[in-house]
Amino acid sequence: MTNDRLCAFDWRAGALAPGPCFSADRDGMDAFARYLDGAQGTRACLVADLVEEDFQRCLLPHVSGRAGRTLVERRLSHAFRDTPFRHADIQDRDSEGRRDDHTVFSALTNAAMVQPWVGVMEQNKIPLAGLYSAAHLSAKLVRRMGIAQNHLLLIAEQGGGLRQSYFQGPYLKFSRLTVLAAHDDVIDATALETAKMQQFLTSTRLLGRGDMLHVVVLAPSARVAALEQRCEDDPELAYHFIDIDSACARLKLAGGVDTAEQLLLGLLGRDSLPSQYPPGAAGRFYQLWRARLALNCASAAIAAVGAVWLLASLWGSVRDGQEATRLLAEAAQYDARYRAIMATLPPTAARSANMKAAVQLDRLLGATAPAPAPLVALVSRSLERAPAIRLLALDWQVQQPVLAQTGAGAGATLVAPAAGDTTDPMAASVVGLPSAPVQVLRIDGEIEVGPSDYRAIVDSVNQFALDMAGNPGVAVHIVEAPLDVRQSVKLSGKTDAGDSGVKPRFVINVTWKP
Q1: Contact, 107 vs 53, CB < 8 A?
Q2: Can you tell me the distance from the alpha carbon of 214 to that of 200, in angstroms, rounded to the nearest whole number?
Q3: Which of 52, 82, 241, 358 is least enclosed by beta carbons within 10 angstroms?
Q4: Are strands 101-108 and 128-133 parallel, antiparallel or unpaired?
Q5: Tens digit of pLDDT for each residue in 28-54?
Q6: What's the gap between Cα 390 and its chain centre?
């Protein structure tokens, strides 16, 4: 976009193709609207190459985060009040003092030159990816081509005229556009504008006395020889001429690039840079385009994953079917071998089902049948912690369930009575079917303590009973105490062995539910 027209270019498959141009009047706007009809799904970038682009340099305190962004936006709005197309470029910092930020503010000061084109794109719902400046894009060109100098002036003929951009290192400090009339000679204008620019840079102290200014001129190959003859070096000025074809080779751009502005557009199309000036409300269609693209990519990824999963499932089902067929054939072979082997064996008195039931019953009895060893082990551990108690006798019994004792609904019996035998059959619950029964252990013991030490005798028995009761599923009942100390009975019992050698005894019943 220049001051008097807008030219369209098509970026496709890494190559730039020129399109139609539209004049900056009502007819041109209508033609541009018709050109955009049906292009709602095409991403667009708008590059401004206008005379009305201003640059200002300033120092800002180095502030990061949200406060820094607020400071930059406030200073930017004060510098350019009358246009929404503003841009701040924080470049480097001072090496001394507060180390302030070197910032370049730029703006398209005549918003009326930009808004009609942007409005047409907004009306046609074109996804406008960004609004760019040819001057800022030239900074990208300098870095990519590796031609940065301490003082560099880049001159290129573009659609709007003769663009002159001044750089210090890789940073753009100033740019201006000189509009050329139809009768102006580009070669003479290049030499004349270079001298004017050198004088301006010296007066603004961007270029010191004695500093060498390197001037890089981008021009078509046919014009380079004439420029070399017209533009002469001096002690403070050095010219460098780069033809467009050599620049394309350095930047690895596809062929078909004839002008400097197409060189910048090729860089923009290949690198997809973020917007330099805010596109305003027209940028929302680009956000919708990005969201639509993300959803399409996600849908394609989900579809691809679903297709892979479907193919894997189909392959798995085919493989499982083959495995099932193999297993069925193998099972049929084993059944045939089993029947053949069984046919050669003599008949047995017991059926295989009965033998299997007997094995299962034996395993169940082995797991749930009552045995005194676990309960006696609990008593042994408690006796280790009661050295005053001496064990005299143990009486272990399996408690008969109440239903088995009554005989009504007692369940199955383990052994059927023989003919003429009057003994009642044993209930299955007594031997641990279907679960382990309750076990009762009667403990007879005596206490070995000093003579007439009543408290130690009573405490030994009580401590032993409490220790036993601390085991899971154990209940303890003191049947006979060595000394009955209840208030309701007469004090009885002997605790003094004397000459007879009789020691105090006790009886405890331990009930355990495994």
Answers
A1: yes
A2: 15
A3: 82
A4: unpaired
A5: 999 999 999 888 888 999 999 999 999
A6: 69
Which position has the token pair 């401590």? Answer: 463
H or E segment and range at residue 134:
helix 134-145
Cα(443)–Cα(510) distance, integer angstroms: 8
Q: Which residue has the tokens 């009965």?
A: 354
pLDDT tens-digit map of 408-454: 444 445 544 444 555 555 666 666 666 778 889 999 998 887 767 77
Phi, psi of 369 (to 5 degrees): -65, 140
Taking residues 102-111, report their average pLDDT: 92
Phi first, then psi: give them for residue 149, nearest 5 degrees.
-135, 170
Whether the predicted pLDDT of 488 surpasses 90: no
Place of tokens 């708008």: 46
Q: What are the beta bridge partners of residue 389?
A: 447
DSSP per position, 62-126:
---HHHHHHHHHHHHHHH--S-S-EEEEEEEE-SSTT-PEEEEEEEES-GGGTHHHHHHHHHTT-
275: left (phi over 0), alpha (psi -120 to 50) or beta: beta
**What's the DSSP call for residue 276?**
S
DSSP state of 416: P
In whole angstroms, give the CA distance from residue 404 to residue 401. Answer: 5
Q: Tokens 């199309």: give the residue.
A: 269
CA–CA–CA angle 244, 245, 250 (5° rounding): 95
Is 234 exposed, middle or buried, given 0-12, 13-18 or 19+ CB atoms closer than 10 A? exposed
- Per-residue confidence (pLDDT) for residue 258, from 0 to 100: 80
What are the pLDDT digits (tens) for 282-296?
888 888 888 988 999
- What pLDDT, in 10s, does the model give residues 109-160? 999 999 999 999 999 999 999 999 999 999 999 999 989 999 999 999 888 7
Rounded (10°) CA dihedral 121, 122, 127, 131: 70
Q: Is the pTM of this model over 0.85?
A: no
Helix (H) or strand (E) holding 295: helix 283-344
Q: Phi first, then psi: give them for residue 258, nearest 5 degrees.
A: -115, -25
Strand partners, 45: 130
Inter-axis angle of helices 260-271 and 244-251, to 10 degrees? 10
